[in-house]
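hiii, so i know i said id send this last week but things got crazy w the move. better late than never?? heres the sequnce for the chain we talked about at the cafe, plus the structure i predicted for it. fair warning i was half asleep when i ran it
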Amino acid sequence: MAKTKTAFFCQNCGTQYAKWVGQCSSCKEWNTIVEEVVQKEDKRSWKTDASAAKQASKPLRVSEITQEKELRLDTLDQEFNRVLGGGLVPGSLTLLGGEPGIGKSTLLLQIALKLPYRTLYVSGEESQRQIKMRADRIQPNSETCYILTETKTQNIFQQIASVEPDLVVIDSIQTLHSDYIESAAGSISQIRECTAELIKFAKESHTPVILVGHITKDGTIAGPKILEHMVDTVLQFEGDRNYVYRILRSLKNRFGSTAELGIYEMQGSGLREVNNPSEVLISKNEEDLSGTAIAATVEGMRPLLIEIQALVSTAVYGTPQRSATGFNAKRLNMLLAVLEKRAGFKLAAKDVFLNITGGITVDDPAIDLAVVAAILSSNADIPIEKGVCFAAEVGLAGEIRPVQRVDQRILEAEKLGFTTIFVSKSNKIGLKNTGIQVQKVSKIEDVVSQLFG
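okay and structure toks below
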């Protein structure tokens, strides 16, 4: 009988300790160290016969390695494919995280129902009847999607062997448990062991696996941090449940860019792909309202036009408030200091509230000029003319700095019917004969004189 082995794990970050301590030295959280049994049974060991030795990996020179184009599995979902970098890579492990009720299970179920090849959807949280009720709303009839409600990995692999799916979806990794580890499902050691078994299956069978992961109260994926290191791709599904829009981001991607963005709209029949998010993120107000400006930003390879709203009012209390939603609050304070020092606007005694509509968060410095324009428009209570948008960064000296890929921004603004776009004078524009007027400015004063002069 093997000796029972125990270890202490932090339930917040997954750091392992030899003995119990009150505070985790890694994440600084108190009372999160829990003892777990990690006694392992005898696993099926690697084969050591001659045939296995022949299949063993051998070192090759870089020049000897043949490079072939990686075939990807089309998910028939343009937004999901875009974030993944073109589709699912065979043998890859993808981790999808998000808040409870945000739509993770709905997104993966509708992808599994639409696919023409065999898919196994494993759920440890819902019964088959519950999943059937959701499937009837999304796509009633699917002959290629198999539903399995199971939490034991050994039983799951038996069903995989009989079904032989082309794609496996696990909902969720926190509900699985393995016989090789004697601890509760959702513990650090169980999550690590179950993920390792799924990685071994994915790599040996070249079958892509998608895992659903819970998140903690601070928005990070629950479980040990090593979980994110083990998988190939980490996706974050975010958004406010009070809004109908959901945003899919890539936090880690071994097969593509992490700058891409996918946008969905939650409907009664599932999640609808939003192929033109600029029309969604810009409100259709007929009246001219002060404090709103349109910015041309870029997320990954996709240009977007977003609406920025600002409200400037006299501070009722002694200390003025500075609040930003979807925008970096420290950068807002910097831009206000530039307006105060370089442009002469007295905003020190005024409350400033900033909001990016649609519930999205943008960190592109190219929206600086639109933020400044919205603040000045609200301060003077003068609306900016319709058809005007902005794409420039604002420096500490009050200068208008150039931004990358300005041609894409201009073309997107022209496509959506804008007539004027403000850019930096230093930007080199390769476009000719455009239908939109390009205003080149070098200082904030130039923008103010053209907008409000």
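btw The CA atoms of residues 242 and 359 lie 10 Å apart. thought thatd interest u
miss u guys!!
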